[in-house]
Amino acid sequence: MADSEVTVRLLGEVLVNGDALPDLLANLLIALSLAPDRRLPVYRLAEVWPDGQRPTDIAVHKAMSRLRDYVPLPAQRNRYYRIELDDGSVDADVFVAGVKALPNTADPAKMNELLELWDGDPRQHYPVTRKYWYRVYQARAELLKKLAHLSPPDLRSLSALATFLNHFPSTEIPAGLWFAASESGRTPGRKRVLIVEDQIGDDFASMLAPRYDYVILRSLADWHKFVVDEPLDFDVALVDLHLTSSSTDMEGIVVLEYLRDNTPIPTLLISGAPLPGDTEATRRQYKLSGVFLKGPDNSLPTLPDSVERAIREGRPRD
Q: 188-191: which pairs have CB atoms within 8 A and are 24 or more residues apart?
């Protein structure tokens, strides 16, 4: 069988040219396909037997003979087996290479293609193969990081995102991605927070993730684009006063004015330094639910409680 005739799917149920394999053969194929040089000794192949069984060498050879019906597999040599497949014929290799090749700038279309490669969580389907997946799941973690930095409109354009997220335990997924998985942008039963912060929005998000969905906008340009493309469907907003590296830009005022004049959203102003002038006057001017100074190392230890209070009490009437 020529390797050009074979297409191997590992990112979900294991398939060869569309045909499902028995679990034992699937385990062997995963181990060989993901091993360095696609080559393993007999004793290592014996480790992927289901249910912790320890087969004899003869049993391993018989199983490998069955696997040869599906994929190009030379006879064992020096008690090693090697599988002959092109990188492009194995979806896991395509995924790893695709993530590595992603540009620094956002490429939602390419990201969506990579998401579409997944049809399940193979570590759950084939648990005895877990140690072979490190390289693939490291690439998945890198892709998740890149996804978390996409703008909300770009996230919503990913048709494969919701299905991809549902393949994995929620503890493995950045909470901020879940909002994009539903049409309304909300996870049922959770409030939604808008974070407008140029430097440490991810830190805010990590504090809020156990209780809330959130969207992070990292610049005034992101804000302007979001207002045009998306509804402001939020229960509370956190707005940094300075949205560039300068401590004098005051770009957050643009966001505060829009929220005050066009929405009923309770808003908390965040700043790294005391506000010029009368803080109470600023609070009244922009109808703020609170003004908070970042603590040491940009910390906001009371942030979750402050967000909860702002949602509960709503925007001040004065």
A: 191/235, 191/236, 191/311
Q: Tell me the mean pLDDT per 10 residues along the chain, length 318.
A: 74 95 96 95 94 89 94 86 90 97 90 96 93 97 90 83 82 68 64 88 81 84 81 91 80 94 94 74 90 70 87 87
Measured between alpha carbons, how far is residue 203 from residues 21, 150, 281, 307 in Å? 44, 17, 29, 15
User: What residue has token string 């939602």?
Assistant: 108
CA gap 64, 29 in Å, rounded: 9
309's tokens: 């209070």
- Tokens encoding 85: 């497949």
Other residues' Cβ atoms within 10 Å of the Cβ of residue 89: 19
Helix boundaries (H) for 117-219: 122-125, 134-148, 152-156, 161-166, 175-178, 201-208
Place of tokens 């389907």: 125
| CA distances, 63 to each of 98, 132, 144 (Å) | 32, 19, 37
112 close to 159: Cβ distance less than 8 angstroms: yes
The closest of 234, 202, 237 to 218, measured between CA atoms, is 202
Amino acid at 302: T
pTM of the full structure: 0.65
Cβ atoms of residues 289 and 268 within 8 Å: yes
What do you get for the CA distance between the two ends of the chain, in Å?
Answer: 78
Angle ∠(54,59,62) on CA atoms, nearest 5: 150
Burial of 47 from C-beta contacts in 10 A (0-12 / 13-18 / 19+): middle
Domains of the chain and CATH, by start: 1-176 (no CATH), 182-318 (3.40.50.2300)
Give the side-chain half-sphere CA count within 13 A for 73. 21
